[in-house]
Amino acid sequence: MNKITLKRTAICSALLSTFIMIGGCNDDNSSSSNSGQQQTATETLTGTVATGKALSGANLEVINKNGMTKSVVVDANGKFSIAVEKGAPYLLKATKGEGEAQTILYSYASTAGNVNVTQLTTQAILAANKADQTRDYDSLAEIYANWAQLVKGSTTDEINAAIDKAAKEVVANLKTVFDASIDTSKGYPSIFKTTFSADSTGLDKVLDQVKINGLNSKCSGIGSTYQCDVQYKVNGQNFAWNYNIDTTGLNVVVDLGNNPNIPSGNYNLKVTTSVMGQGATVTIPNIPKPANQNEFCASDDVTAQLPDGQFKINSCSFNGTVGSINATINTNGFSVTYDVKYEYTPA
After folding, report:
1. 190-235 pLDDT, tens digit each
2. What does UniProt give as the signal peptide span (predicted)?
3. Which helix (H) or strand (E) holds 324?
4. In 3D, which of 192, 262, 267, 193 has the Cα closest to residue 6?
5. pTM strictly above 0.70
6. What are the backbone angles phi and psi of residue 157, rounded to the nearest 5°?
7. Where residue 140 falls among pLDDT bands split at 50, 70, 90?
8. Mind giving me the DSSP string for 212-232?
9. CA dist., res. 332 & res. 317, Å (int)
10. Cys-Cys link to 121, which of 107, 133, 219, 268 (CB 3.0-4.6 A)?
C-alpha cells in the first residue's frame, strides 16, 4: 500500500508509562526477546500476479537479502499477501504449470508494500542484468538462486538504481501502448509499484497487449554482446525491443490518481492506542490513505505500530476512513492485548 510513514517511537513515547510495565518500547531497529530467544521481524508484501490474465493458483515465493524464503499461493484474482522475514531488497518468483506450459515471472521490491509480478517486471530485471558489465548470472533463475550473494556484492542503492532505470526503459519501449490504454497526462505508472487489478483496465490493459516469450532462457555475452532468445509481441505483431532507448523526461508516478482503487491526496491520521486500561493518541499529518480493507490490514506500516515481539492479529477492519486492529502481543515474557484505532481525515 502507499507508505504510512509512522514511527513506532511516536506511539512509544505517548504510551511510555504503560509499556514500561510490559518490558518497554523498542525502536525500529531493535528486537525483543522472549525467554532469551530473539524474535524474527517480518514485513508484508502485497500485490498482483498477472500477464493480463490473473495468474491464479501460482506459487509466489519471496527471497530476502539473506537468502531466506517464504511462499504463498496466489488467489483467484491474482492477488497475494505474504509476511516475509525482514531483509530488503526482495526478489519474487511466481510459478504456475509445468513443462512447456509453465509460466515463471519475477519481480523486485526495495521495501515492503505493493509489488506487481508481471511479464514487464520480469523484463525489467532481465534488462538490469543485461546492463551489468560484471554480470555473473546467465538467467533469471540463476539470479534468484544466488540472490543473497548478488546483494552482498552490490549496495541496495545500486540495485534500486539499476531496477528503476530498467523499469523506465520498459515504459519507454511501450510508450504508445500506455498512451493508448490509460490517461498518461500526469505521468506513467510504475510497473513495479502501481496498484492494479487483472480486469483489463489500467496497467492490466497494457499487459493484455504485450506478450513476451523466452524470458527464462539462458543468456550469453557481456554488454553489447549480451544475447537472450526473447521474443516480443505487441497486439499480436512482432516487436523489436530497444535496450538503449532514451528515457529522458519520462515521468513515472506510483499513484496517478486515475485508478479508482488508488486514493489520491494525503490525510491526517489519528492513531489511538489502548493497552491495560491506559491509552494515548497521536496525530500524524499528510499520510496516504489505504484504498481498501485488504490494503490496510496487510500493511506492515500499520502493524509496525505494535511494539516489537510476537503478535497475533485477532481482528482487523477498515471502512474507508476508520481502521482498527486488536492484537495480542507476547514480549519479554508478557502477553498483553492492544487495541489500535486509525482515523483518516482530509489534510
Report:
1. 999 999 999 999 999 999 999 999 998 887 766 566 678 899 999 9
2. 1-22
3. strand 322-331
4. 267
5. no
6. -60, -40
7. very high
8. EE-TTS-EE-SGGG-EE--EE
9. 28
10. 107
Do 268 and 249 share a structural domain?
no
Within 13 Å of residue 49, how many CA atoms lie on the same side as its CB?
31
CA dihedral 287→13→112→251, nearest 10 degrees, is 40
Q: What is the DSSP string of 97-138?
A: S-GGG-EEEEEEESSSEE--BSHHHHHHHHHHHHH-TT---S
Cell numbers 519475477 correspond to 106
Please tell me whether residues 120 and 201 are part of one structural domain.
yes
Report yes or no: 248 and 228 within 8 Å, Cβ to Cβ. Answer: no
**Category of 165 on φ-ψ map: left (φ > 0), alpha (ψ -120 to 50) or beta:** alpha
Read off the C-alpha cell for 327.
492484537
Instruction: Verify that 238 and 269 share a domain, yes or no.
Output: no
211 and 342 share one domain: no
Tell whether 289 and 340 lie within a shared domain. yes
Query: How many separate domains does the chain show?
Result: 2
Strands 113-114 and 42-48: parallel
- 241 and 303 part of one domain: no
Q: What is the pLDDT of residues 298-342, one digit of tens each?
A: 766 666 666 666 778 888 888 878 888 888 887 667 788 888 888
pLDDT tens figures, 254-299: 765 544 444 445 677 888 888 877 888 888 776 777 777 777 877 6
Nearest alpha-carbon partner for 202 in 291, 263, 249, 262: 262
Residue 53 lies in a domain: yes
Q: What is the DSSP letter of 306?
A: S
d(CA 226, CA 238): 20
Of 253, 280, 298, the position where a domain reaches its end is 253
* C-alpha cell read off for 256: 496517478
CA–CA distance, 183 with 258 (Å, rounded to integer): 7
CATH code assigned at 80: 2.60.40.1120
